[in-house]
Each structure stands twice: as structure tokens, then as C-alpha cells.
Amino acid sequence: MAVLGLDQVLKRIKKDKLLENLGARELENPEGVGVDLRLGSVHKIIKGGAFIEADGKVGLGKRKGVTTKEIYRFDPDSDNQKTLTVKPGDYYLVQTWESLNTPQDLMPIVYVRSSLFRAGLLLLNTKTDPGYQGGLTMGLTNLGPFPVKLQLGARICNVVFLQISGKTVSYRGQHQGGRVSSHKKEQQV
């Protein structure tokens, strides 16, 4: 695998809509090898009860996520964005404003921006499979001793694209399209 250079990323953004809703900075003057993604929405967990079953002889296990409530959403037309105060120990599910349209030959990898972890914030994420479409949902918690203010629309992570050589299988999971949580019991796919 090789990392896709910015010239190729920008070309595929324009040609294939690799990323949608990018800010002007990322389209006109990105840096490094990836593009920054912004905080688009914040979701609070309002009910637990999550479980993930093991696969068995009769097939794939079932699962259920937590119940969430969206508490903030970025408004790209407003000059006055809301601010989330993340207190020590708080945990939220956050989603990027930008959406991915991941082709079969690329695998996005997300890295937290250093300004977050320098303030005590930890962004929990995973790889993104080819074929995934939608915003990226990640966990956000404050491991530091002080509250941190995070404004909607702030750049929170950087996505880098790895070029895949060989066969891939498209993402077919339940979070396709950017679903934040599966709050009802359902069959794993």
C-alpha cells in the first residue's frame, strides 16, 4: 500500500466526489498528505444496554448499540457556531461534517489533530473500508484534568488515503451512510 499524494486526493475529490462538504482551506491550501475534517455534530449517549454477540453455529451474532441524541450540529451558513464544553471524563459520539465516498481502491485512515490531544482530548476511531459512504463517527473523551471548549466546525482530524493493491470487498455494515448508533437489536452483517 502507498499513501495517495495531495494532488491525487484533490483530483479524486473533484472527479469522483471522494469527499463532500470540504472547507475552502482543504480545497485550496491543504498541507501534508491528508485533508482535515471538521466537527459536524455531537451526540450524547442517553441510554445504555449495548451488547455484541459472538458468531455461532447458527450464523452471525446480534448486536445493539446505545441510544443517542444529537445535541449540536454545525451550521455552515452561520458565523456564530455553538461550542461544546468537554469536561474531564465526558464521552460523546461525534461525526464529521464532511462525507466520504470511498472507492474500492482506497482505504481512509483518520488521525486526530494534535491540537486535540495537546488539550487532553482523545478521539477514538478506526479504519474505514472501501465502499463506505457517509460521515465518520468517532468517540470523543477528555482525559485531561480541565474542561476543553470545542467549537462546531473546528478541524478535529486528518484523513489520509492508502492505495490498495489487490482485491477488496465493499463495506456492507450497518453504519453505512453515517448512522451514529444501532439502538435496536439487529443481526450483524
TrEMBL record:
Gene Ontology molecular functions: dCTP deaminase activity
Pfam families: DCD (PF22769)
Keyword Transmembrane: no
Origin species: Candidatus Daviesbacteria bacterium RIFCSPLOWO2_01_FULL_40_24
UniProt keyword list: Hydrolase, Nucleotide metabolism
Keyword Hydrolase on entry: yes
Gene Ontology biological process terms, A to Z: dUTP biosynthetic process
Protein name: Uncharacterized protein
Record-linked InterPro entries: dCTP_deaminase, dUTPase-like_sf, dUTPase_trimeric
